[in-house]
Amino acid sequence: MVYTTQAIKRKGLGLKKIAETVKISPTTLAVVCCALIAGWLILLTPIHGYSDNGDFQRFMATNDLYSLHQVQAGYVVQQYGLMKYYNPLHLEHLTVQSVVIQLAVGLNRLFYSHSRFDIRFLGAVHYGLYLGGVAVLVKGLVGEKSRLRNYVIAAVATLFVADSSFTLYFNSFYPQTMTFILLLYLIGFGLLVSRYKAVNKWLAVGFYLSAMALLLVHESTSLLILGILFMSVGILRLPNRQWIHGTAAVVTSVLLFTCWFSANHITPEVRAMNKYQALTQGRLLATDQPEQVAKTSKIDEQFALMKGQSYYPTAYAALAPQTDYTQQNFSQRYNLPWLIREYTEHPHQFNLLLNRAAKNMLVLRPRLTGTQEKQGDHRPFQKTAYFSLFSYAAGAYYPKTYGFNCLLAAAIMIIYVSGLLRGLEKSDQQLRSHFWLVLGLLSIVVLVPPVTIVLYGTANFVTHLLPVAVCLTSAGLILLSDVLQHRLWRTNDEV
Question: Which of 27, 243, 455, 469 sits in a 20 to 30 Å window from 285, CA-based?
Fold first, then answer.
């Protein structure tokens, strides 16, 4: 069918009129859709989630939980045991994730059982926090008005935040669950603050509480500190008030201290594991001559056999990583400055690892996991394809090189530099704040992969790089919102 110009205009006006007459706002519509999509997946029987790939034990042990039966790998487990007596490991490693698990355990004891724990209580806590994060993010993207373009933005955001690659984390003990949820709050509060000409103190408090909680989820989230500091520049922006400088100094100091605490609040075993895998699944993995690498740190050549090995090997290991012999003759022979020097002297090999990181950045589902319970004809490690359009498209079609990520980040920042200049010219606070917000998100995209390689090697790339995927996609959503709302080319006075 061929439309005339007048017909197209009439059709557009008709859609606009329909959008304006709809009583449900774009934010509410997005929250309702996410509630239905995620709720069916994680709360109704048979439940879905992510199975244990070996990381559950330390979270379970410190939160008074244990496996009731011998768990078959690749299946989601719904029921766990609750310890009745003294647990010497209780909250030994206190994090935000542990606080959330303890809340779920308390609700379980109150409404269900004192001896058995149903993972759906944890899923329900995550679910409630998640819906709040969705509301904050979408509200920040679209504002108050029920315009057609705002429904489009809300729909695209829903495809992202409701993707099962993220929501399947809810029925699990992985800390990435709270990383994802808190990033929604952090970015959403940053967007909401930017809509006001003067700082809304409560929204600013929400931003900084989200930032502190995010840093305390896991030691790896401390790597997000530089991006968070960039974002905060757009939050504290009252040039005519003397106290703003003192406030900025205080909040920066608090964030830096929280970052330091999170990075160092780990057990000696975890510290040893990170150091070991930084070499075996990092520097040694990047070379065809691991013996030569070992020599540079006065490590016996026999340890070249450790190339690619995990600290907790699932198959034959040439040497046991935890033994005193290995620690004295291998792990204690190198340090972080040596690793950095090795990578700077061999940039090509480091680039190989960066490209490997890029290939895993948008592979959002953790490896060696299943998503379903053991029943019927479900196979171990089987993964559901339910509501996974975003993760499938990203994994299949997004370019998988680190250089492309850097070029994309540079291109987006060029757009926002022009937006910043226009914001300064027109005294448009929203444009200025969006510049710092996007700069913070893209700095995470560019800087976290190389730092992750140096500190952790390629171990658990998918889980370590989840914040990178969320930040890159969120930057794209903000750009989409700014383009559709003509914010980058004309002053938008809407709050």
Answer: 469
Number of domains in the chain: 1
The answer to whether residue 166 is domain-embedded is: yes
For 10, other C-beta atoms within 10 Å of its C-beta total: 12
Kindly report the CA angle at 193 between 163 and 34, in degrees rounded to 5? 20
CA geometry: angle 18, 21, 26, nearest 5 deg: 85
Q: How far apart are the first and last CA of the chain?
A: 40
| Side-chain-facing half-sphere of 291: CA atoms under 13 Å | 2
- Assigned domain for 224 exists: no
- Do the Cβ atoms of 280 and 303 come closer than 8 Å? no
Q: Model confidence over 301-351: pLDDT tens digits?
A: 777 777 777 777 666 666 777 777 877 777 788 888 888 888 898 889 889
d(CA 236, CA 470): 24
With vertex at residue 441, the alpha carbon angle to CA 437 and CA 442, rounded to the nearest 5 degrees, is 115
With b for 16 or more beta-carbon neighbours within 10 A and e for fewer, the 112-147 pattern comes to: eeeeebbbbbbbbbbbebbbebbbbbbbbbbbeebb
Q: What are phi and psi of 89, to 5 degrees?
A: -95, 5
Residues 232 and 27: their CA atoms lie apart, in Å, by: 24
| Contact partners, residue 300, CB within 8 Å, separation at least 6 | 294, 329, 330
- Among 369, 472, 417, smallest CA distance to 160 is for 472
Tokens of 163: 């993707």
Cα-Cα-Cα-Cα dihedral sign, residues 210, 215, 218, 222: positive
Inside any domain, residue 416: no
pTM score, whole prediction: 0.89
* Euclidean distance between CA atoms 304 and 323, whole angstroms: 17
Number of H helices, E strands in the chain: 21, 3
Beta-carbon contacts of 176 under 8 Å, excluding residues fewer than 6 positions away, are 169, 218, 366, 463, 466
Judge whether 58 lies within some domain: yes
